[in-house]
Amino acid sequence: MVNADKTRNFPASAQDKHYLVIIDNMMNLDMMYEATKLTGDPKYAKIATHQAEKSSDTHVRKDGTTYHVVNFDPKTGKALDFMTHQGYSDESAWSRGQAWGIYGYAQCALRTGRDDFRDTSRRLADVFLSLLPDSGVPEWDFRAPKPCPYDASAGTIAARGLQMLYQLLLPSDKSAAEEYLVRANKLVEDILRECGTPAATLDKDGKVNWGEGSWETLLQHSTINGNEKATRRLLDHGLVYADYYLMEFGNEAIKIERAKEA
């Protein structure tokens, strides 16, 4: 791996000297909490909580944006380097990384009941929403030069995180909870308007006609990696993350509406 702003390599052969942690890992911590629930062994939850605490101190910047990658000293745990791999630059604001943080910290708050995790998710969410362009669809990197390609996946992930903030805040601050739910719904509405794929049709010969652009995903216009130094730079394409979290959002939206009607 090579970070964006510095010509410095972190090869796999040097893992004894470098320990790279990505903000994306916040999405994996829920499995650790579930492992404790299933086994009764608290060690997994303790590891997850420690990771969330560490990332709050290192991946989250003072301005509420996030670093993609932090390089730690594997012996001391000291943060050595702050960088990106998929964003525009080491000090930019990669939108999907911000979304991973919103979702991940909300999940940790639901698992632990800790207000600091909830507040971290909320802080990241407020910054994410403040940086959205007029279209309402997140750009691949909020601080990249304009025009900048979209990343629909960042939007669907963030929207699902906003639903969790609604759930977390509803018992204590109904007004704030409802506002996050409104913003979540608006975010998905904007994504569907700007990025929705035309309906596919079936030709007489049995072949699928994917329509204009031949998109095979539910949503268009995601960007997996726009970094100019990436080995494989991919911008403006369909991405499974976008579709998956759109479905997860929709399922949760149904549950929320049913709960309101009960």
TrEMBL record:
GO terms, biological process: polysaccharide catabolic process
Annotated transmembrane regions: none
One Gene Ontology molecular-function label: chondroitin hydrolase activity
Keyword list, A-Z: Glycosidase, Hydrolase
Keyword Hydrolase: yes
Membership in a protein family: Belongs to the glycosyl hydrolase 88 family.
Protein name: Six-hairpin glycosidase-like protein
